[in-house]
Amino acid sequence: MSAKQLVVKIIDNKSANAFIKKQHYSGKVVPNSQIHFGVFWRGNLQGVLSFGPPLMRSNMLSLVKDTKWNDFMELNRMAFSDVLPRNSESRAIAVVMRMFKKHKPNIKWILSFADGCQCGDGTIYRASGFVLTDIKKNNALRINPKTGDAMHTIQAWHLKKQYEFKNWQPLSGYMFRYIYFLDKDYREKLNVPVIPFSKIKEMQASMYRGTKVQS
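RESULT FIELD:
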């Protein structure tokens, strides 16, 4: 079995969201996703990567100089089945990034966040050519004491729960921000420092599949 045998193609919103609800650790989709890539193995959908505008796009715009409003997107959901062969995630990302140049040639760079509280610290991103641009102690994900579920600050705002949200306990862990440059010229326009991957271990922030990695 080889990850080179994967087939990646654009799929519809309904198929992508159904897969994400089943396979993503959060069980939730991002409503403003605009393009979905399906990863097929032996004819069956076994992975999805969904992209859309960042929820706080105005805050992210200044990360890279000369970026216009529609010049970048966020990889906001990525989910893979366990049946896929080794290295499928990095292989799928590589293919998707090439497809972006054909289907979305205006996009200069891709933003993504790794959830070091519930999932991982971004191992796949580091293996796929992303650069690390931020490590931040989590304050955006908090536990709803009534349901026990995690809620993001943006979701709380949309649900008009921002005031009670402030009193909820934040999840322990870190959030990581990564950037992939489709247009390599924009790499030189990055307005924030690139953080060495070794910093994750130094901060004892390593996380893999929901489990803290002991240094």
